Amino acid sequence: MDFLQDANQLIKRFEDTIAHPAPVKKDTKLYTGVDLGTAYIVLAVVDDKGQPITGAMRYAEVVKDGLVVDFVGASRIVKELKAGIEEKLGVELEAAAAAYPPGTVGGDQKAIKYVAEGAGFNVDALVDEPTAANQVLGIQNGAVVDIGGGTTGVAVLKDGEVIYVADEPTGGTHFSLVVAGAYGISFGEAEKLKTTPERQKELFPVLKPVMEKVATIIGRHIQKFHVDNVYLAGGTSCFPGIETIVEQEIGVPTWKPDNPFLVTPMGIALSAHMKREG
């Protein structure tokens, strides 16, 4: 759809700056999004105009179903990624935002914030993941669904305002478990296999039941609202054809940007920017 063009362009710029950081003037304020995923920790950095500057990521198993299970390991990785970016840019990163799956409450939300603070960030904003994703997508009406490694988060928007959020523990981890079982391979091998482009067509029928389960979750959470369109984000949404399965199952037009994986990290960074700059 045409309105996703702006989101696609923003994410493409972010993608490009990961390898080739944008130049930063000496006194430019920078804002970092800290995305603690089940499979990856991603940092995204924007400037005071909300434009991508750079980012970094690392595979990690420190979060399970949206909950931090290795606080020390998570904080260490975020600190190392932060230091690497600071070395590339020649500036210190301070202001940040972090995000949590919608079903995360109380102390579990604070744990995510404490990880970022333990790495040296000043955390100004803590937002739910699908709401953060919508900072990039810019949806006024519909449902934004963040399908991550451990959870599927749903946010319903009306006139640009989030009126409902929820999540359930189904995501990319479950895809990998199904692949591991079907092929008799380890979980790690399954993780690699499911993201190998030339094997994804072969894997599609194997993973279709899990995609249908994700669709059922989405359908259950949006059924009491008048939702005309569903928009996917999150790394698991990268799997080719998942939007087709979701649309077939729930009967609602379903869309995704070119690179759903980077939508939420960028949205978290923009949330930090919005908190400070307004």
UniProtKB/TrEMBL annotation:
Pfam family of the protein (one): PilM_2
Species whose genome carries this gene: Formimonas warabiya
Stretches assigned to coiled coil: none
CDD domains, alphabetized: ASKHA_NBD_EutJ (cd24047)
Protein name (record): Ethanolamine utilization protein EutJ
